[in-house]
Amino acid sequence: MNSIKRVMVGWMLLMLCGLAQAETLQISSLDLMKVQQGWGHPQPNRSVSGNPLTIAGTQYEHGLGTHTDSVLWIDCHGTAQRFTAQVGVDDEVGDNVGTMVFTVVADGQERYNSGILKTGDQACDVDVDLADVEILILLVASGVDGMNYDHADWALAQIEYQGEAPVALDGPKEEAIILTPPPPTTPRINGAKVFGVRPGSPVLYTIAATGERPMTFVAEHLPEGLQLDAETGQLRGSVKIPDTYLITLQATNAKGMDRCVMRLEVGDTLALTPPMGWNSWNCWGCAVDEEKIRQAAQAMVSSGLINHGWSYINIDDCWMRKPDEQARDAEGNILTNARFPDMKQLTDDIHAMGLKVGTYISPGPTTCQGYEGSYQHELQDAMQFAAWGFDYLKYDWCGYSQVEKGREKDALTKPYLLMKQCLDQMDRDIVYSLCQYGMGDVWTWGLEVGGNCWRTTGDITDTWGSMSSIGFSQDQCSPYAQPGHWNDPDMLVVGQVGWGPNLHPTRLTPNEQYTHISLWCLLSSPLLIGCDLTKLDDFTLNLLTNDEVLALNQDPFGQQAKRVHALGLTEVWSKKMADGSLAVGLFNRGEFEQEVTASWEVLGLSGPARVRDCWQQQDVGILDQTLTRKVPRHGVFLVRIFPQG
Ligand code: GLA
User: How many Cα atoms within 13 Å fall on the side-chain side of residue 231?
Assistant: First the structure.
């Protein structure tokens, strides 16, 4: 080709490009599997519950129906020109109030922020210039009231582009880095240093200690009725006289010795620190059976989790029969289904390992999965649970909706009070876990009905949207947490989860998992692992065995952290510990690394203080006035701050 021809071809190509029509891509045509959201599934051209997209009475023919917290990354290849949409809360939530904030982020810069929108608000127009933008992120965050009823619509959402069409992307996923050094080979006594039992109830307390085995245990000042097994570290027996007993525990191995004082409260309050254990639901769902429960218990011991204070093995839904399968015997006693041939043998075997066992049922005629509930058999079921040897009961509202439509306080408290009265008559201690998803602000009356913990939200799933919107909405419940009574933002979603029978690795990124565990510890939440314990990888095991992190959760003072500072998508949460130190989390809920600052003023500190990085178990230094740290996307910097002098 000679040079004139070359110039002419170039010129024609330029003309063609210039004349190329701008094309329009509806967001609903993207691969919506890439949307991460807090509840339900993303819906093309429909609301999250599958209705026509409708905001303040206006219906829209296309768009994306999602739910807070929602994140969608889009690769625009620099070919996009404009993003437009109408955003708001979908009318399908009726009179319920959902609140949310829509933001559009282009190459790291926030280009649109709706401010807080709530149910019934008119749709807001979004019109963002995307010239030269590579990465577009559509975000919907829950308002201050948590994620309930946050049905979010990106109505008529579309991108005008010229050239390569934009595509949905997975969010970035960083490398899984283990931050914590292994525990020393010398003995170290971990776990709760305060323990509550009722007079005369059977005691089972396993001294949680890391370090080389064999190890021998000694307990001094044991009250009458208790015996320690020097080899296993299991304290058993029962104590008749209500009192506070200070017991000195000692663990010795070839490398050294550790001692500490444990406070045994013989009285009427159980769960003086948040229960720590495992529950079958988030991994096995209804595919649970006796063998899986046994394997979980064995793995709790063989993985070493037991040495960090993990103690409950809880069976969730689906151990009973369905009402049409002769769910009770002639006397009305509840029967197990074929997957649980011998409940008593199972609990005996788990107790022998030094662990406790939990069960589940509904106050209604049926459970969430349609199995037999306790309705009109409450005392009989409590007696059966005690006879089987259970130590924990999750009492899940679900089927009770069939008999109670009201949602006023009397209606909500009634079934929980009834079961509490039944449990109180038993001659063993059964930790009482209320599960009714936060209805009627349960945290304001959970203690009144005798709950040791109460679920504050709907069910968690293993997405950033779900975990973060649940975790970061717990501020309102904070004042109600105290020893014996805990807010429960649902179970952990690290490791291999799946709600059965098929499992997958958690969809949370490594930093999101650090955030999850840090936040749940700061919140003094019950810690119930929801993954297959027989398939723990090193990263997951590390997340669950950092004793300095777990100590924040198991602190005897029993305070729940509060959000003391928020700036954009960064937050600082802090709680006071029994020794006067503070547990502080610097969180970044944003999509890019950001600096987060906790000032002494917001922490209520003055003067120099020693700051310790809890995940790395390393001192950061002596600081006064502020702690500032670059925190990665969806990540955390978790510290304990010890005021000096
Ligand atoms: C409800 C609870 C879950 C689980 C299931 C079992 O959804 O919130 O935690 O117990 O029921 O069916």
Answer: 1
How far does the centroid of ligand 1 lie from the alpha carbon of residue 311, in Å? 21
The tokens of 642 are what? 């010890």
Query: Which residue's CA is minimally distant from atom 8 of ligand 1?
Result: 459
- Round to whole Å and give the CA distance between 435 and 392: 13
Question: 369: Cβ below 6 Å to ligand 1?
Answer: yes
Q: What is the pTM of this model?
A: 0.94
Through-space distance between the first and last CA atoms of the chain, rounded to whole angstroms: 84
Place of tokens 């129906």: 65
460-485 pLDDT, tens digit each:
999 999 999 999 999 999 999 999 99
Task: Check if 459 is active-site.
Answer: yes
At 571-613, the pLDDT tens digits run 999 999 999 999 999 999 999 999 999 999 999 999 999 999 9
Task: Give the whole-angstrom CA distance, residue 253 versus residue 250.
Answer: 10
At which residue do the structure tokens 């009305």 appear?
332
281 touches ligand 1 (CB under 6 Å): yes
Instruction: State how far the Cα of 113 lies from the Cα of 104, in Å rounded to an integer.
Output: 7
* Ligand 1 nearest atom to the CA of residue 285, by list position: 6
Pairing of the two strands 626-631 and 570-576: unpaired
| Ligand 1 centre distance from Cα of residue 459 (Å) | 7
Atom of ligand 1 nearest to the CA of 491: 9
Would you say 69 and 37 are in contact if contact means Cβ atoms under 8 Å apart? yes
CB under 8 Å to 59, separation ≥6 — which residues? 52, 53
Find out whether the beta carbon of 396 lies less than 6 Å from any atom of ligand 1: yes
